[in-house]
Amino acid sequence: MAITPGERALRNNIYYLHHIFTPLFLTLVGVRLKVEGSEHLDPKQSYVIVGNHSSALDFIINGHAFPGVFRFLAKQELLKIPVFGFIVKKMCLVVDRSSAMSRARSVVALKQQLAEGWSIFIYPEGSRNDSDQPLAPFFDGAFRIAIQTGAPVAVQTIVNIRHITANGAGLRPGIVRIVWDEPIPTKGLGTADIEPLKEKAESVMKQRLGFGN
Q1: Which domains can be identified in the chain, with CATH numbers?
Q2: Distance of alpha carbon 186 from alpha carbon 151, whole angstroms
Q3: Rounded to 5 degrees, what angle do the CA atoms 117, 14, 209 make?
Q4: What is the pTM for the complete model shown?
Q5: At a CB cut-off of 8 Å and minimum separation 6, what does 210 contact?
């Protein structure tokens, strides 16, 4: 499928955000990123990417370690944030979580993005986890889409981000690890496999965060 000029511009903008702006910004505030496991990823493969979400920084960090480009699923409330909301509108698929119709449309749009060669990124916790637990309970959506489309699930875990952003007093200098585990295949899986797939991704993240068995 040929890439339209509009899509090429979008891909370029996302690449610049993740691979040029992100490291420059983090360097200025004294935060270093250490990427592990990116050799597991095929830049030509479309993935359903799932990651933990416990910091406002996650959005700009998530894509830095990915060899390709992806579209985020973002909640509509983010559009209200000055400047950041403009970026979200241009680069993400936006969903109104209070609207069943919007949620249904977002699922169709996410599947279409996968069919067009994009990867998609969904926070399975639904929103930022501000609790004292390593992860909030996962929703089914990302794993249902992965199984329905046959896209592998790429699990990304951001480690040490809470130390960097602790106490709401700005950013502390330090190292943030971005860990990719080997993608989980979904070919041949069905509806009954959604829960086991979700549990496997959750277990991988907890182990990386130091809370696994």
Answers
A1: 5-208 (3.40.1130.10)
A2: 6
A3: 85
A4: 0.87
A5: 134
